[in-house]
Amino acid sequence: MRSGEDAGPGRGSRNGRGGGFGGGQFSINGRLMAENFINERIDFNTTEIWEITNTSPMMHPFHVHNGQFQILDRNGSPPPANEMGWKDTVKVGPSELVRIVMRFTDFRDEENPYMYHCHILEHEDRGMMGQFVIV
Ligand SMILES: [Cu+2]
Q: Is residue 27 one of the residues assigned to a domain?
């Protein structure tokens, strides 16, 4: 997914570089969860495609709040039948690249963020989580 470079709270960039799980800690896009940092600002009602890569040696189930998505492809191949429906979580295995597509059509709010995170409790507790606002 797009990276949130450390340009200060609410200034997460959208440049698409350096993304993914891993990096030696339980980080996403090189960052641990920080309560005062908005990782992404997403335009209301536009189509989003997020690229989720996993550079760690373990699987991470990536979960997004405030919407559902569809899986475009997994390592460039179409998803299997059981992954073709609407999802709010997708497994991303080691060295995998998964692309998801979604639109955020509800609850536009510049102040109150939603979360995306690994759905393994021990991982999210160690910082594998980020915040986004719909603007
Ligand atoms: Cu995880």
A: yes
